[in-house]
# Entry
Amino acid sequence: MATELAPQLQVPEVPVSTPHPVSKSAERVWSSMWPKLGAVLLTVVVWQLVVWSEWRPQSALPGPWPVLERLAADLGRLDFYAGMGLTLRRAAFGYAIAAGVAVVVAILIARIELVRRSVGSLLVGLQSMPSIAWFPLAVLLLEKNEGAITFVVLMGAAPAIAAGLLSGIDQVHPQLIRVGRAMGADGLRLYRHVILPAALPAFVGGLKQGWAFAWRSLMSAELLIAATSPASIGQQLQSARNLNDAQQLLAIMIVIFVIGIAIDSLFGSLDRLVRRRWGLLGNES
Amino acid sequence: MLALSEKHALSVERLSVSFAHGDQLLLALYGATFEVKRGEFVCVVGASGSGKTTLLNVLAGLDRPSAGRAHVHGRVALIFQESALLPWLTAAGNVELALELRGVKASVRQRLAHELLGRVHMAGFEKRRPHELSGGMKQRVALARALAQDADVLLMDEPFGALDAISRDLLHEELERIWKESRLTILFVTHNAREAVRLGDRVMVFTSRPGRVGHEVHVDLPRPRSLDSPELAVIAGRITDRLKHEMTNGH
# Structure
């Protein structure tokens, strides 16, 4: 999408100071896009230079062009989308469970002092533990690949989400709580109408970080499981390695990268939307 | 209803409130005793540390008395110094939440909120969020929200302290008008003696820590009063002298 837009945006004669809204917003898009496009371009150039240096044979490190051709061919195959769909379904399922568990755990930690002192301190440890380390145990316990994958995604994402929400709850301005109580909100209603909305910006931050962990955990897990049909993204990566198919390998890496970034930027937009509504962004138009 | 509650909106008897401060006990209020009649507008002035905010918190049920009792006959609403609107809700949303927490049906909340905002001259600002409003406008919304609680008693904690002189003047008029229309009882805390005389039927001067009613002034000036009138200045001057006396005595 971005690469399609770029040539049009590069069209000159966009006056710097026109008040015209269309060219203004085009300018804004361009000014936020060009550093990213530049970084991509630089990566491709360095990549090509390394290939030209013949440090490695083309079979191990193909150039950008054959990889892009391979990617285009992959994107024309139906089973490729089936695999991508499988991976995204796993991600969504595990992430949704993680978010649900994290909300309950965070509220329990915030509400009950004993839970804070016990589970709360574990939360930090869990966050620093690579969730893929749970995988062998999960396979043994659950005796099912899907269950184990969900478990690993859950263990990857939930601590980050819970930590985000918990810090949001802990940092709610005491004045807002007084306001809520003075209006007659107590217990659950205080949570629903005051504390949780006040904690939302921090929660969204936690969700964003949780997504990054979920995606990493999922990719690790998919590399480890036995083949299924359709082949998930992680499995396709693994089988490309087994077949010494470097083009396919790099093409799939690009897909993993783009999906990760696309979803991350969705969370970024959500984050900005919430902050603007909450009046946390300095000034706005 | 009891004859007592017909006559009095607030009764405070030998109220003491203390807080743990490090390893010592801090006495915010000690033996405060007073009553406020239904429909009365009473101002409380006192230096900082005279337990004024504590008094309002106890009356609003946010803090507990350590000894004595504080009783409110009817529903209370509290208005804070800093506009304490919920920043994620629009002006109308803030008022609607107060209605919702009071148990008003969803179908009429929007219309009621619109009416209440109209009463404080905020019609047309329903969709604005707090950070898009000036300090005075926020306090108007806070007033509408307090009215939405359908309170009998309005407790106000230095509500106009952070406003510029003109906004404050306008809000004095607004508050006086609403007080008359809705026959509310108002307990208004301020550290500004002129503001107290401008608004109150009665001004209670609180002593410095621990706080209790040290002195009381009945204001008989006709309404509406002007902040700049010489009669008002004379009474306010006497109150200020009292306050200074309290502060030098306390230390």
Summary: The mean pLDDT of chain A is 86.
